[in-house]
């Protein structure tokens, strides 16, 4: 563990990194890394709406938070298995490797496996890349230390290998080889770093932030009123003060909602309906919510936007299946390939990582057991294998594989008289 102690022995508070601030239309933006400075100089995070969109601010938008939570949560909770190829048809758990404990039980000194995967997946979605330092001892992976993507810079050397430069919080730079970094990224334009939906959804998210700010200001300043009181004569300063005090007292008691109010001195009440501008503002908020879901590849109904979704169960089911096939599968494949390439050596060609995608139906009891029944009927699984999937102990005589319920499973020979 000498490498770990050398990298992380000093306290982060010993040296405070210089901070700066660049003024944008929406206020100040704190710059603490070269990446932040580059973004600010290029105005890459300031939108046409005047709102600066960063990963932290984007997460304050409900649609962004829900999309990141759903995708990263699915990746974190699906079982990730480490398998060994025994022969062309046989696979077994490679639980004898220390890498099994790192992936399944303890990736580092303070995180749990689901926390580690959820964090790196969120980095990929919000920042385009997920990085972790691979700590090895005697050729075995001991720990995976997550690194802040803002502080990692990647470049390709002349021999086409990658070099990672990590900037510590005290300003020191440390260079790592390609085989020392676990690197996750999906869609890429240069082949060495990934792009995030925030890069291209920045205007949409900026509009959502501006709309939220506008709505909050409206409520704070009380510009929207539900109605007004009209009188044919002037009330005078004392009359207005008395009326205002009585109205405040009436509104202060919640149990009076919906009850009749007595008006004096010829006062009449008039109600105000929603203006066309208010209605358009609400519709535009709904539109940005659907657009953000589209950028992340999440069905709108999964983030609470059910207005344009069918109420039929099969319609929602098909949308959920499409999410698994075209969105979630992309992230699961990214993890499997990164684990196989970065964490395994060339001598471990018989070892591979694989997510258990069948666990996606754990919450659907009917679909799960229907799959088990078909596996039993067609001889794909034995009763004890099904019981193991359900965390149940094996039973005596449960290792038998049943023949399929048709002639395809009949291997006995018969003579010309059709007798066995």
Tally of DSSP helical segments: 13
What is the H/E string?
A: HEEHHHEEHHEEEEEEHHEHEHHEHH
**How big is the Rg?**
30 Å
- Give the low-confidence spans: 10-28, 274-283
- Find the count of extended strands (DSSP E, 2+ residues): 13
- Report the end-to-end length measured between terminal Cα atoms: 68 Å
Can you list the strand order of the major beta sheet? 4-3-13
Structural class based on helices, strands and sheet pairing: alpha+beta
Specify the helix fraction band.
40-55%
Quick structural overview:
This protein is an alpha+beta fold and 420 residues long.
Task: Give short descriptive properties of this protein.
420 residues; alpha+beta; 2 domains; 3-stranded antiparallel β-sheet; 13 helices; 40% helix; 16% strand; extended
How would you describe this structure to a colleague?
- The chain has helices at 2-8, 34-41, 55-58, 62-77, 98-104, 113-127, 197-200, 202-221, 236-252, 276-296, 313-342, 365-377, 383-389; strands at residues 20-24, 27-31, 80-85, 91-93, 130-137, 140-147, 152-156, 162-167, 173-177, 181-184, 227-230, 268-271, 351-355.
- By secondary structure, the chain is of the alpha+beta class.
- The chain has 2 domains: 50-222 and 276-363, no CATH class; 365-420, no CATH class.
- The strands form 5 sheets. A 3-stranded antiparallel sheet has the order 4-3-13. A 3-stranded antiparallel sheet has the order 6-5-10. The chain has a 3-stranded antiparallel sheet with strand order 7-8-9, with no helix packed on it.
- Strand 3 (80-85) and strand 4 (91-93) form a beta hairpin.
- The N and C termini lie far apart (68 Å).
């Amino acid at each position: 563990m000498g490498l770990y102690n050398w990298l992380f022995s000093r306290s982060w508070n010993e040296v405070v990194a210089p901070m700066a601030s660049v003024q944008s239309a929406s206020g100040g933006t704190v710059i603490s890394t070269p990446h932040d400075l580059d973004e600010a100089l290029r105005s890459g995070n300031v939108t046409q709406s005047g709102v600066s969109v960063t990963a932290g601010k984007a997460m304050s938008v409900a649609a962004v938070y829900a999309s990141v939570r759903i995708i990263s949560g699915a990746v974190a909770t699906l079982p990730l298995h480490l398998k060994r190829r025994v022969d062309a048809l046989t696979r077994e758990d490679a639980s004898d490797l220390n890498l099994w404990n790192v992936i399944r039980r303890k990736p580092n000194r303070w995180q749990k496996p689901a926390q580690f995967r959820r964090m790196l997946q969120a980095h990929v979605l919000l920042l385009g890349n997920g990085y972790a330092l691979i700590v090895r001892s005697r050729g075995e992976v001991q720990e995976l230390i997550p690194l802040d993507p803002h502080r990692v810079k990647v470049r390709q050397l002349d021999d086409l290998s990658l070099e990672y430069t990590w900037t510590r919080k005290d300003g020191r730079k440390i260079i790592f080889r390609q085989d020392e970094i676990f690197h996750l990224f999906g869609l890429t334009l240069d082949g060495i770093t990934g792009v995030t939906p925030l890069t291209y959804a920045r205007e949409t998210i900026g509009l959502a932030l501006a709309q939220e700010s506008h709505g909050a200001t409206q409520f704070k300043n009380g510009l929207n009123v539900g109605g007004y009181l009209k009188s044919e004569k002037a009330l005078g300063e004392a009359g207005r003060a008395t009326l205002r005090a009585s109205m405040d007292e009436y509104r202060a008691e919640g149990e009076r909602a919906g009850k009749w109010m007595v008006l004096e001195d010829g006062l009449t009440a008039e109600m105000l309906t929603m203006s066309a501008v208010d209605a358009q503002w609400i519709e535009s908020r709904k539109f940005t919510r659907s657009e953000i879901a589209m950028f992340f590849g999440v069905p709108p109904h999964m983030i609470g936007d059910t207005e344009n979704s069918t109420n039929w169960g099969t319609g929602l089911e098909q949308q959920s299946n499409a999410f698994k096939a075209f969105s979630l599968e992309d992230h699961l494949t990214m993890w499997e390939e990164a684990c196989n390439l970065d964490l395994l050596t060339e001598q471990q060609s018989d070892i591979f990582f694989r997510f258990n995608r069948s666990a996606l139906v754990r919450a659907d009891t009917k679909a799960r057991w229907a799959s088990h029944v078909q596996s039993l009927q067609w001889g794909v699984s034995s009763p004890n294998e099904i019981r193991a999937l359900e965390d149940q102990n094996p039973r005596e005589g449960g290792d038998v594989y049943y023949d399929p319920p048709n002639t395809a499973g009949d291997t006995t020979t018969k003579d010309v008289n059709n007798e066995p």
